[in-house]
Amino acid sequence: MSIPFGGYASPEQIMRDRAEYARKGIARGRSVVVMQYADGILFVAPNPSKALHKISEIYDRIGFAAVGRYNEFESLRLAGIRYADINGYTFNRSDVTGRGLANLYAQHLGMIFTESIKSFEVEIVVAEVGDAPEDDQIYRITFDGSVFDEQGMAVIGGQADAVGGRLKERYSEGLPLPQALDAALAALTEPGGERPPVTQIEVAVLDRGREHRKFLRLTGPRLEKLLEAAKEGQEGAQQPAEQAPVEQAQSEQDQAGQAPGATPPIAPEGDIDTGSGE
Amino acid sequence: MASQPAWMNSLFTYTGSSSFSEFLGVHAPNLLPARNESLAAPVGDEIPHATTIVAATCAGGVVMAGDRRATSGNIISQRDIEKVFRTDDYSCMGIAGTASTGLELARLYRVELEHYEKTEGRSLSTEGKAHRLATMIRGNLPMAMQGLVVVPLFAAYDPSHDTGRIFSYDVGGGPYEQKEFHSIGSGSIFARGSLKKLYRENSSPQDTVLACLHALYDAADDDSATGGPDVMRKIWPVVAVITADGFRRLPDDEVAEFVESMLERRMTAPEGPTAPLR
C-alpha cells in the first residue's frame, strides 16, 4: 500500500478514495437490466456496438452482464468461461453453479480492490436459470467484491438507482417475455425520453425451456418482432396504471427494507470481503 | 490457498489462444486424455472397444448412426453404449476404438468447440472444427502406439455451404474429407460395402437414416463385434440427423419404427434390399 509522499493517509481514506474513483467510472456508462421473466432470465443493455458485448454466455445455465471498463470486465468474462469449462470438464456439467462463479469473481475483485493501486471499475451480474423460477439466481457483484443475492431483478451501472426504481414499478413475477422486455426498456429510458432503436440494444435470455445451452442472444428480426409485441402490450397496459399507487407504495417499502442492496457502497463500512483468504 | 489447483491462478491472467485444450495443456495437463506414459503391458485387447459408426450426407444435411455394442476381446462388455455424440448445434462425432479414451476425447472436444464459441462470440468454421479434432487425435498418438487407439468420425452441417460434410481420421490425425458417406470401426468394411449400394445422392434424411440402419445391420451380420438392433431389450442404434435446424438425435420410438420396417423387409429378404444392376 503506497503512502503519499510527505503525508499520511489513513486506510479509511485510501479505501474511500478508491471506492469513489470506481463508482464514478461505473456511473459514467449506461445501465444494464437483468430480470426474471416467465420462462427464465432476461438481459437488456443499451449497447451501440454489435461486436463488443456487455452480455455473454458463461455456461449451460449461466449468463453474465457487466458495466464499466470493457477491458476489465472482458478479462473477468474470459476467466469465468475458463473456470466454468474446466470445472464442468473435470466433474460434470451440472456441477458448474452460478454461486461458485459469483464467489470466484468476489474473491478476485475483492483482492484487486484491496491490493492494487486502482480497483476495477466494473459491476457485474452472474445469473443462473434453474428448472423452476424459484431456482433462478441473480448475483450482483460490485467492484469491491461484495456479493448481493438479488431477488427477481438487478440493475447495474449508470443511474442504477433511478433505473431500478422505474423497473420496480413495472416488475412483477412471471411476466411474459414481451412484457418483461417492455418493462426493462421503459426502466432504461428516462421519463419523457425516447427508447433506443433496435440496433442500439443488446438483448439475451436464459430460457429454461431450451435444450443443452439455455443462453440465447436475441437479434435481428426476432428482436424486432418481440419489440413490436412489447409495444402492443404497452398500449394495452395503460389502464392498470391506475392501480399503480398501491404497488408503488409497496415497492418503495421494499426498497427501504432492502437498503444495503439498493445503493452501491460508497465507502467500505463494516465487513469487507477482501477475497484474499489470508 | 496452497491446496488450490495451479490453474486457479491462471484463470484471470492467461492470454493464450481461445483453445480450451491448449489452456489445459499449459496449466492442467493432468486433465488431458492424452498422456505420454508408457504402459507396463499392452492392454489394447482387454479394455472395451467401440465398434461401428456410419455417416452419410443427405439433402440439406448429414446423418450419423452407430451400433450400441462395446467388446473386450470376445466378451460383450456393454450392450447399450453410446458412441455418437453431439459436439455442438451443427456437428457430431462418433468414436471407434478404445471406448474410455474415446469418451474422454468426445467430452473434451465438445468443451473445446463451446469454449471457442463463447470466448470469440462466433462458431468455428467447419474446417476449423475438423482441424482441431485432428490435432487432438495426434496428441493421443503415443497412447495409440501402446494399443489405446481411438479414431473418430466427424460429421457437420456447414452453414456456409448449406450441405452436410464428413471427415475421417487415422491415429496420426487428419482430417480426410469424405464425399457422400463413410464408416469407421471393426464392422466398417461391411457397412461401407452396404452403403455403396444403398446410398442415393440428395435423398431425404428419412431415406438416408434407413440406408444407414441397413448398413449397420449388414455390419452386425458379418462382424462379431458389431451389435445389431436388440429387439428383445429394445436397444436401438443411436441415430443423429444434422440439418440447418441443428443437431437432432432421433428419439427411441422413432428409430424403432425405422428398425421395424427394416426388419420386416429382411424377414423376406435376409440380405437386405438389392441395388439395380442395370
Key phrases:
heterodimer; A: 278 residues; alpha+beta; Glutamine Phosphoribosylpyrophosphate, subunit 1, domain 1; five-stranded antiparallel beta sheet; 8 helices; globular; disordered C terminus; B: 278 residues; eight-stranded antiparallel beta sheet; Proteasome subunit alpha (chain A); cytoplasm (chain A); proteasome (chain A)
Tell me what you see in this structure.
The complex is a heterodimer of chains A (278) and B (278). Chain A has eight helices and ten strands. In chain A, strands 8-1-2-9-10 form a five-stranded antiparallel β-sheet. In chain A, strands 3-4-5-6-7 form a five-stranded antiparallel β-sheet. Chain A is α+β, with helices and mostly antiparallel strands. Helices cover 41% and strands 20% of the residues of chain A. Chain A is globular, with a radius of gyration of 19 Å. Chain A has one domain (11-262): 4-Layer Sandwich (Glutamine Phosphoribosylpyrophosphate, subunit 1, domain 1), CATH 3.60.20. Chain A has helices at residues 11-27, 70-90, 98-115, 160-170, 177-188, 220-236, 244-257, 259-262; strands spanning 32-37, 40-46, 55-59, 62-68, 122-128, 137-141, 147-150, 153-156, 201-207, 215-218. In chain A, strand 5 and strand 6 (137-141) form a beta hairpin. Chain B is 34% helix and 26% strand. Chain B has helices at 20-27, 99-120, 126-139, 141-145, 188-198, 205-222, 252-268; strands spanning 49-50, 53-58, 61-66, 70-72, 75-78, 84-88, 91-98, 150-158, 163-170, 173-178, 181-184, 238-243, 246-249. In chain B, strand 2 and strand 3 (61-66) form a beta hairpin. In chain B, helix 5 (188-198) runs antiparallel to helix 6 (205-222). The model of chain B has no long low-confidence stretch (mean pLDDT 89).
